[in-house]
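User: Some background: our group keeps a shared notebook of sequences we're curious about, and every so often someone picks one and asks for a predicted structure to add to the entry. Today it's my turn. The entry only has the sequence so far, pasted here. Could you supply the structure so I can complete it?
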Amino acid sequence: MSDIEQQLESAAWPYWEAEAEIAKRFFAKATNDDHIFYLKAQLWKELNPVDGYFNGLHRELSNLVDMYPKVDKEIDRHDYHFLLTQLTEEFNHYVMLADIFEHLMGRPISPADTIQLSEEKKLGDLRRGYVEKDDPLLKAAVGFTEGGGARLFREGKKLSGNTVNDMTAKAMQTIYDDEEDHYRVQAKEAVGHIASNADLERMMHAIRAISAQRVRMRAEMFRDTMTEAEIGAFIAANERPLN
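Assistant: Of course. Here's the predicted structure to add to the notebook entry:
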């Protein structure tokens, strides 16, 4: 990992670890009702991943259908396969989490069961704001922060002790395996857009802003398991020095 990649990771690190701590505390005491609440929000996220960057599973699937005639003509087949794989993985994440939701509810899931919480909407607005600036550097920052370093799934895959926890651990192990290295791949891409210290500072500023909003999103999703003061203190305690 290059020095620049390490600096990008260090900028996001305390926020990602805050997401993990929020999830860890939530799962330690979560009732079935708590699981239902967070699943409704997480299922929305699975159907609308990285709102403003990856444009929802339905639209992405439609785009892939339109792109297919261009494979090995205007579009490299390896790039197309990557997009197909990404879409399949995202839908599988939805399938596994929806199975847990149906187990808890005792009925089939419906479209009305997925919800976008207010802090998630703010996160989407923030991401779109960066993407719509048509600045490759800022768009790379959005891609780098996607998934929060897979910290939620790192914690969720450790669960055990009852059927819901076992189902959750299995789903989150799969998601973790799929997404564990995403930020590293995005970091390598981001480096190509950094030509000066000013560029690096601008990207790290965007990374921190998005990551901070991700923490607020997780706090709402996990029913304020940590207070705002606790989150602020945790982030400060987990700051990593920049090279």
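Suggested note for the entry: The mean pLDDT is 93. The chain is about 70% helix and 0% strand.
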